[in-house]
Amino acid sequence: MEKEVLLVISTFPGAEAARQIAEQLVTEKLAACANILPAVRSIYRWEGRIEESSETLVLFKTTRNRFDDLQRRLRALH
């Protein structure tokens, strides 16, 4: 039976924080791979205003059965 693969997307304030957390999640086998994409521009609503900032985007590849653990750990580390 094939495992269902999921792509989890998260942003970080900088490349070093993204690298550290990506490495930790791969080390813990919660993500099979993490792709770090530096210098993305994000536009979002925050406290009633439109904001824009530079962030680092990470794509985590995991499986359905590891998703909940990855999500919990990502929230704890982030």
Short characterization:
By secondary structure, the protein is of the alpha+beta class.
Question: How helical, in percent, are the residues?
Answer: 25-40%
Taking the alpha carbons of the first and last residues, their distance comes to 33 Å
SSE string, helices as H and strands as E: EHEEH
Strand order of the largest sheet: 1-3-2
Number of helices: 2
The number of distinct structural domains comes to: 1
| Structural class by SSE content | alpha+beta
Shape: globular
Output the radius of gyration.
14 Å
What portion of residues belong to β-strands? Answer: over 45%
Largest sheet: 3 strands, antiparallel
Low-confidence stretches: none
- CATH architecture term: 2-Layer Sandwich
CATH topology: Alpha-Beta Plaits
Mean pLDDT: 95
Task: Characterise this structure.
- By secondary structure, the chain is an alpha+beta fold.
- The chain has a single domain (5-77), classed as Alpha-Beta Plaits (2-Layer Sandwich).
- 35% of the residues lie in helices and 47% in strands.
- The protein contains two helices and three strands.
- The chain has a three-stranded antiparallel β-sheet with strand order 1-3-2.
- Strand 2 (33-46) and strand 3 (49-63) form a beta hairpin.
- It is globular.
- The model has no long low-confidence stretch (mean pLDDT 95).
Properties at a glance:
3 strands; globular; 2 helices; alpha+beta; 78 residues
List the helices and strands and how they pair.
Blueprint: E1 5-12, H1 15-27, E2 33-46, E3 49-63, H2 64-77
Antiparallel strand pairs: 1-3, 2-3
